[in-house]
Amino acid sequence: LGRPAAPELVSGPHFRVSVILACLALFLLLREVSSQACIVPFTILATTSTNALWSMPGELVLSLGPVPVCLFKRRIPYKDIASISEVRGRCHALSLVARRILRPWRPLGFAYGLTLGKELVDIELLPEAQASQGILMSQPLLISVDEAEEVVAHARFRQKHGPDATLPASMRAAVSRNAGVHGKAVKWVVLDVFELLLSWHARNATACDLFGFLLAPIRAMVESQRATQWADDGAHDRTV
């Protein structure tokens, strides 16, 4: 088996203050009703307080986290995209997000676009792709990204020329710059466990069931310790 394709552009994971505030408000509301119901905002916080996008050679990969679950992990082949465009103007972006939020029965229409201060990309799928992806993908998707223009240009190029075509020089420069930004070992540490989960989300992992969700912190900790041990062993070998 060959190695999986590496992402050419990466956006995130982004820490989403809007989701955290909404979960806090929901927690305060439910606490007055039933203490057992407080698990709901905790679950929402654990699975939707970060978002990330990977631009692969053949598809876009969307995910929420820091504990990614199958419901919010979506793969969109470029051939399935009917239109992809940058949302220009802050007022237009805010009004568009607000209109999507007013349709809570279509959560994926706005779920990926709640990162404050980030640019937005609007994606609509072909009708046949909507049918194959399910009812939750039957509406345009708003996605928060670092550089909307680069994501749109990359997707359109791959859609037109395919996954094996060589990127033009301008896009290769963007890919190199993006790799440099996301390759730096600089993080804002809020909580040790949260940092571990965030790093797990950055590696494009997914929890597809209750056990995967509950064991995610342990798995992230084990993987982190393994990576540290490998780094220490490698440093020791170089000094011997």
Protein described:
The chain is of the alpha+beta class. 50% of the residues lie in helices and 18% in strands. It has 9 helices and 7 strands. The relative contact order is 0.15.
Give the tags:
single chain, 240 residues, alpha+beta, four-stranded antiparallel β-sheet, 50% helix, globular
Distance between the termini: 34 Å
| Topology order in helix (H) and strand (E) letters | EHHEEEEHHEHEHHHH
Strand content: 15-25%
Number of helices, where a helix is a run of at least 4 consecutive DSSP H or I residues? 9
Number of strands: 7
Strand order of the largest sheet: 1-2-3-4
What does the largest sheet look like?
4 strands, antiparallel
What's the alpha carbon Rg, rounded to whole Å? 19 Å
Percent helix, as a range, is 40-55%
Segments where pLDDT lies below 50 for 5+ residues?
184-195, 235-239
Judged by helices, strands and strand pairing, the structural class is alpha+beta
- Overall pLDDT metric: 80
Globally, the shape reads: globular
